[in-house]
Amino acid sequence: MGIQWRDSLAIGVELIDSQHKELLQRFNALLSACESGKGIDELKRLLVFLDDYIVKHFSDEEQLQRTSGYPGYEAHKKEHDGFIERVMAVKHEINSEGVAVHHVMETNNMLLKWLLNHISKVDVELGKFLRGAGV
Ligand SMILES: [Fe+2]
Question: Which of the four pLDDT bands, split at 50, 70 and 90, describes residue 112?
Fold first, then answer.
């Protein structure tokens, strides 16, 4: 189960592709923790990890877009910002209410839908541009 990396997800920039692989692995770790009843513990770990990692990953990706003159930069950045906001909202809720199973399910869902959709559509689009631009 989980999301398996496949070559069609690659954007052709090693740094970004390896960050995407790491994100998918972390998501898969949450899924398998859920299957063995340890979802809450893994969610706490995942949120700590995402804190730094996602900001670094998005800023690496955005920098690449700016330096290559990518025309979809503004819209792409909005997607990133929206994702960070959603992660923050879950963290905020957990901080005020304590962590519960529904947080695990929400995060699972959010990662599954957002991550796969974003990488396979929005980031792959960037990859096409970069290949065409010869970056
Ligand atoms: Fe992206």
Answer: confident
